[in-house]
C-alpha cells in the first residue's frame, strides 16, 4: 500500500474529507453537545497547562503546578487589562 504522504493530491483530498466530516458533525450537534465539547476542550487545555507548568518547574507536585498556572493566568489578565492583548485588530490598523 503506497504512503499517502507521497501523493500530495491524495493527501489534500484526505484532509478535505476530514475537515468536511468535522464540519458536518458539528452541524449535527445539539447545543448541549456543543457545550459539552467546549468544557471537555477547556478541561483538556487546563490539563496541558498543568503538565507544562509542572515540567517547567521540574516537579510532580500538582499544587505547585496549579500555582504556576494561576500565575500565568494572572499575567495574561494583566496584559489584557493593559490593552496589550486583544482578540480583534484595532480599528484603522
Percent in helix: over 70%
SS-based class: mainly alpha
Helical element count?
3
What's the number of extended β-strand segments?
0
What is the general shape? extended
Measured by DSSP, the beta-strand proportion falls in under 5%
Amino- and carboxy-terminal Cα gap: 51 Å
Number of domains: 1
**Biggest β-sheet: count, sense, barrel?**
none
Which descriptors apply to this entry?
93 residues; single chain; 3 helices; 73% helix; mainly alpha
Concise synopsis of the structure shown:
It is built from 3 helices and no strands. It has 93 residues and is mainly alpha-helical.
Describe the 3D structure.
The chain has 93 residues and is mostly helical. The protein has one domain (4-81). The chain is 73% helix and 0% strand. It has helices at residues 8-28, 31-57, 62-81. Helix 2 packs across helix 3. It is extended. The protein starts with 7 loop residues before the first helix and ends in a 12-residue tail after the last helix.
